[in-house]
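hiii, so i know i said id send this last week but things got crazy w the move. better late than never?? heres the sequnce for the chain we talked about at the cafe, plus the structure i predicted for it. fair warning i was half asleep when i ran it
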Amino acid sequence: MDSFSTPRVAVVIVAAGSGTRLGAELPKAFVALQGRTLLEHSLHAVRGMRHAAEAIVVAPASHLDEAAELSLRAVGRAVTVVAGGATRQASVAEGLVTVDPGVDVVLVHDAARALAPSALFDAVVDAVLERGYGVVPGLPVSDTVKRVGEDGQVHETVDRSRLSAVQTPQGFPREQLLTAYALARSEETDDAGLVAAAGFRVDVVPGDAHAFKVTTPWDLRRAEELLTGSAAPRVGTGSDTHAFDPDAELWLAGLHWPGEPGLAGHSDGDAVAHAIVDALLSAAGLGDIGGVFGTGDPRFEGAHGDVFLTEARRLVEEAGFRIGNVSVQLVGNRPKFSPRRVEAQERLSALLGAPVSVGATTTDGLGFTGRGEGVTALATALLLG
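okay and structure toks below
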């Protein structure tokens, strides 16, 4: 399989399980975990991937509308939602029908593995592109394993050094996965088994302890405890650069600057606000400003920075974080920033509900900003769990 500079990736999220062993009165993927459903947690991981990915949700026929609503809330745009089948394998098959023919790599992920991190998804994609065949994440088996008979008698101690407890997401070249499903004549416990049965190679790559499957009430409590204890700060950085546009009004750091040349851009060109948004989204693992607020979206044409900041704050808080503080460095010859520094900091802090500090500097006449062609803003954001 050739490597792709911009591979197209699809993630089929299987969310059609009943949740019987979890003791829930609703399908497992719709059970709440720290204020968000298991499905939403999985979708947030997809959204945070370095590789842009198309999400396809396979849900119970009775919960399609709810799945669509949750998906929109988690991803920020509509995703494909289809009804699952009688078995997991049948459900995945329903999801694969909707995968675009131009997709290069398909990942299949169980929504019940709600804490699987975005980095694991990206690692699987990278490995599939590098190797050209299926890849599944797995962890070494730490317990001693016995093979026993129906009567409970121990017959053999299995060599655990050759065993791996596999997880999801499992990734495959699209054509190999579709071929395996087309050839399937029996039920396999996972997609890797189906692909291997079709004669394709599958490798195991290092998994992640957080990608465990929420199956029982104990698993759910474990996930709750992990999230409750995951208050380690998260840091994100962001930057933005805009050229001056003499025909536009200048909006910078949330303030209007009469008499100054404006900044070119799809919106108002507020480089300080945009850099902050990028830093917030980065820290929360939600992508970047270009992916969330695309220039093709007419809603943001000419929009001021406070629109982006307010929405970024909502997304970050919805993802379970709160903003600790933000620091921004503005680089440029104009406008003269120091007289309005306090005003800008107060405005930005009010919008984000957290302290924002803004510094300004020049480059001694060097480079793009030194020549007075525009400004650059660099931001760092601290999020708390």
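btw Residues 10 and 54 are 5 Å apart (CA to CA). thought thatd interest u
miss u guys!!
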